[in-house]
Amino acid sequence: MPVVVVVKKSKSLGPLLYRFCYSSARVPAISASKREREFLSLLQCYDTFITCLTGPPFHFRRVETTSSDIVGHAAVNKTRVSEYLGIPYASPPVGSLRFATPEPFSSKQSFNASAYSPDCPANISPTYTFPNLTTLGQRIASKFADQAGNHTQSEDCLTLNIWTKTQFRKSRKPVLLWVHGGRFTIPGSNNPIYNGQYLADNEDVVVVTFNYRVGIFGFPGSPATTQNVGLLDQRLAVQWVHNNIAGFGGDPNRITSFGQSAGGVSADYYSFAWTADPIVHGLISHSGTALSMTPNSPEMSALYFHNVSVTLGCGGESDSQALECVRTKDFRAVLKAALLVSYAPSKALPRPVFHPTVDNKTVFADYASLGAAGKFAKLVNAPYIAGNLDYEAGYYKISAYAAKKNLTASEWDLFNLAGFTCPTGTEAANRAKYNVPVFRYRYFGTWPNLQLYPTSGAYHGSELEMVIGTAEDVSGLPNTATENAVSRYMMKAWAMFAAAPAHRLSELGWPFYEPEGTHFSAGARMDG
Question: What is the reported pTM?
Fold first, then answer.
């Protein structure tokens, strides 16, 4: 039932406004003075009259964007939140745009943003087995790695999703822009872990997620085309959000990009690639920085692409001819050919073949030297949060087992240090060295409804449901009281970081990071 918001008493207009709000379809047919009729007409003409209602008209409001006019709907569980799904931000990267720099999308037709778009093309790994992996753990791991196999794939996938509450107020809200992980090989934004309705509802921020090209389509490696087009997709998504988010109630001058694993690496890559015009005003790297992954050399990437072209019958020609030939092949055939290319050797896990390549524009060869020299975007208002989990290996043990990798406990400790703890500490220290406000955390949370197996601990990715508020949706089980408290704290911290200058986190007891001092610990041991 519609709810009336009483702002001011009025002998003449009060009853009329009351009756108007209760009629969600039209102005009530009652006698009224000229002044009253003019007032009602204004209510009809201005979007702000919708605040009288909690019904659908608020959520179906049309938003004009550079892509097209967008129509949203109420989120399923948090109905005060407007949800806009599958908004195109780039033209479909097909034909000559396959493996190429993305181009902005524009259409004169209205777009009903009612469903996620297909995932970007990718080879989905099979479901893994692991000793003592529970049914719950299998479900969570499958969702995290997009192994369910129930999503369609298409090259027409460069879309974003927006969640916002009370989007038509005068003051603009901070924006949290999520960059998904997945080792640059796993799609996409259609994942219950990343559903932004809870974070948008709890903290009144605008949450945005998006797809970008992964694997060979995002990082083809051919010398005849632009490198790292998946990272250029990310840049175009940031530009789209900056240009359009005000229509959804967001503040284009308060955008924080946050990502996990490859998404955290992407956030750090971004700070080195776009120093002159970063657009974003804050960056958060969860379990991944530019030092966490070794990019391919141009020569190695070129060899990988050549191998694919030969498999597809496109080899033996010049680089440009091979590229044009591969562009004509069905994307499924390209994926199948890419799957045949041998992985680069690695002690713990196979390194992805088609992932970022050094081009000295979007990806650089020596981030240790660049970071030490301060060659990153220095965002002084809400600059950088970097963190990792207590036992990242708790997730990776599953895929290592599938790859028949049997590491000792000390080797797994080294894996945690080399891939996460040390890269996080180094990048945080580099920022602090140049007086950039930076915060660091280490997450220890283990919860009954997020456990993969009895000793999985605070594993890679297990903090995401806490920050985004989706643990119950993902697990199908209720949170504990302590889990809810930690989740509320983390959501508030991320929202406060996006909302205001960095010093506000001190209100939550979170000090600036000092390399010789302490960092913030989040989470709790299992309760319940």
Answer: 0.87
